[in-house]
Amino acid sequence: MRFPRFLSAPSNSRSNRGFTLVEVLVAASITALLAGFIAVIVRNVSIVWSRTSNRLGADAQARLVLDQLQLDLQGAMYRDDGNTWFAVDVLNSPNGNATGLWQIAPRNPKPNTNLSLQMNTPKLSDARFGAAGVWLRFFTTSRGANVASSPGTISAPVAVGYQIIRRFTATNPANQNAAYLLHRAETRPATLSGRPGVLEAGYNIISANYTTSTLSTNSGAITGDPRSVQVPGSVRNLDAVVTDNVIDFGVRAYVRDQTIPGGLRLIFPATATGALSNSATVRLRGSLPSNTPFSQWGTAQPFPDVVDVMIRVLTDEGAAQIANIEKVQNPALVVPQKYNSNAQEWWWGTALENSQVYTRRIVINAKPL
Prior knowledge:
Number of helices: 4
Number of domains: 1
Strand content: 15-25%
Number of strands: 13
């Protein structure tokens, strides 16, 4: 009896042989291509996420600052007594300002040239208000407890001041970068623990009590003292900081005037004819009622009716890049060619690429008391 013969597959059948070199190369190419696509997608998502996170962080800081400014300005106070109740100065000196707290960058500092002073641009969001922005101060209403036993916290007029200061945020400056910090200083209403407040210092925001008094006097630089309007705390006192990474702060102030187009007359930063000024010496000293006719101003200036506020806030990435530009390094960093080998243009170019500008129009409701 014969059994059937089972034929086995040839030894060279495709089921038994491996991949050819061509097949391996094609598979590897496809895998590499897919991996490249995935890497690009992941990188783009990461960039978008980082930018969005930075933008949201800057938005939150700006909202905090503008809300506080709006609260203070809407509660601004004014008395028709010849004193200055509202003042603005442009801070464009090499050391930023006169507080003694401005830590000059050891290399490539923010310029105090016309690169930082462009106040006469048509759009406020394009303007620049000097190396340290403006120093804004005025009297507003304290939202205190109205408790007789705590005169330093009662609801009464207080003096407030806003300014940018570049200073260290830690106790060991040798190991820390300085930050651009926006300060809001507030003078207590009345005497507290032997130190005077606004009720003792008076209602002239440019008087010596709020400017040139010394640290050793009761108008010194302790938090809540009158002089803290100019010097907000000691070198290590950061109680007055509203937010960080603010590299520009500016205002435009107006009074209502129906005789001119738009119904608002510019009073800061303005020339004698009401045109936008770009002078670092221009200032505002509001001592007249805002409805005083222009012909009666003379050398005096009115209290504003409307204020446009602008702040420029660095993203976290921008703050890191600016800190790197300002840091002493060996060898020194080379200025990129796209900035024409100009370190000042490099500073501002980096700032513009990594910051956001925020503006708000605020109506002041103050009436002469």
